[in-house]
Amino acid sequence: MARSLHFVAADTAEAQSALGEIRKLYDDAGADKADVIVALGGDGFMLQTLHAFIGKNKPIYGMNCGSVGFLMNEYRTADLQARLDKAESAQVHPLRMRATANGKPVEALAFNEVSLLRETRQAAKLRILVDEKVRIGELICDGILVSTPAGSTAYNLSAHGPILPIDAALLALTPISAFRPRRWRGALLPHRARTRFEILEADKRPVSAVADDYEVRNVTSVDVEEDRSIAMTMLFDAGHSLDERILAEQFID
After folding, report:
1. Buried-most residue among 64, 68, 123, 249 (CB within 10 A)?
2. Residue 121: how many CB atoms within 10 A of its CB?
């Protein structure tokens, strides 16, 4: 059955060229009337598209017109409706970040990760609480992140965090260049866990918090938990599901 489509594209020349090409072949029903949102760009643009369509109940099918494209399908204009008919779906839930910065509360969502990063040459000092219990009284590091399964192959993997299956009811808590405790490599948390970061010596060692591409600077505390009230559906070509991609990533040399 033919689905009505709406096309969105990143600002890059490659993505805009692809947008022009694909609109010559398929009608654009507009954002409100479309059954499927087709996103043209890279992984960063897929994250932007997920944020843009929260609450719209529209599955998103990405085609790679960027660099990495882990969250995207191959860009190909032929047989798009047939590909959608056979597509496999993955449901993702974002993290909700609640931060305090300059005495004011700030909220943001992240489908990949929430990361805390030092702002200056001096390492950050953090206290970590999980479900209101202090787990690490003082972590000295460049930063730390909480990752969803969907985001576990992104920044989390670069920081030597674990890759999580997409349907794992887990979050990855991964330090970035931990100095003390030097041998702490992070933790796997139940997806219901509520994680709080308190910034120690915040004036001397300022820290920023980043939820996907939204950054807030000079935070003094950050609370992170999964928001199961929000669910977004991503579509992947048959045989190239997000499950399969995450599994395959663990066997790459």
Report:
1. 64
2. 6
Cβ contact 246:153 at 8 Å: yes
Q: CATH classification of 5-92+231-249, choosing from 3.40.50.10330, 3.90.79.10, 3.40.50.2000, 2.40.50.140?
A: 3.40.50.10330
Annotated catalytic, 213? no
95-226: CATH, from 3.20.20.70, 2.60.200.30, 1.10.600.10, 3.10.450.50: 2.60.200.30
pLDDT in tens, the chain (253 residues): 789 999 999 999 999 999 999 999 999 999 999 999 999 999 999 999 999 999 999 999 999 998 778 899 999 999 999 999 999 999 999 999 999 998 999 999 999 999 999 999 999 999 999 999 999 999 999 999 999 999 999 999 999 999 998 889 999 999 999 999 988 999 999 999 999 999 999 999 999 999 999 999 999 999 999 999 999 999 999 987 788 888 888 786 5
With tokens 């993702």, the residue in question is: 92
Task: Tell me which of 32, 43, 79, 203 is the catalytic residue.
Answer: 43
Q: How large is the C-alpha radius of gyration of the chain?
A: 19
pTM of the model: 0.91
